[in-house]
Write a structure and sequence with these properties.
The chain is mainly β and about 120 residues long. The protein has a single domain (about 5-115), classed as Immunoglobulin-like (Sandwich). Helices cover about 0% and strands about 50% of the residues. The chain contains no helices and eleven strands. The chain has strands spanning about 15, 25, 30, 35, 40-50, 55-60, 60-65, 70, 85-95, 95-100, 110-115. Strands 1, 5, 6, 9, 10 and 11 form a six-stranded mixed β-sheet that branches. A hairpin with a 4-residue loop joins strand 7 and strand 8 (about 70).
Length: about 120
């Protein structure tokens, strides 16, 4: 993705610069129904608007696997630089089967790291 390809949609998630709370939580759905993630592993990845990787397949937490709920808890280093970012969850179902969420045509979550007043 290049800067000229950037979407104009509103960020889906906001977090402060250098902050680790709140965690980014999501319900992963397929055809509008929560996906059962039992026996799966989930990771989270995030890039800045220039395409540079900030988070590369970091472990995410299954909140309730059967309900498809997951979360990623940011490290302070993940949110060190204010700006817009693009992230997604990747699920490994085992046996070589994987999927990325969101699975819409955009394939990412827009994340805004907000500059903190000092």
């Amino acid at each position: 993705m290049s800067v000229t390809d950037l979407p104009t949609r509103t960020p889906d998630f906001h977090i402060g610069e250098g902050q680790t709370y709140p965690a980014l939580a999501a319900t992963l759905k397929e055809d509008g129904v929560a996906k059962d993630l039992t026996a799966s592993t989930v990771t989270f990845s995030m890039k800045n608007v220039y395409g540079a990787t900030v988070i590369d397949s970091a472990s995410a937490t299954l909140i309730v696997a059967a309900d498809g709920t997951v979360k990623y808890t940011f490290l302070a280093a993940d949110t060190a630089d204010p700006g817009l970012y693009y992230g997604h969850f990747e699920v490994d179902f085992g046996g070589g089967s994987t999927a990325i969420w969101p699975s819409s045509k955009d394939h990412y979550i827009v994340i805004e790291i907000i500059d903190m007043i000092e």
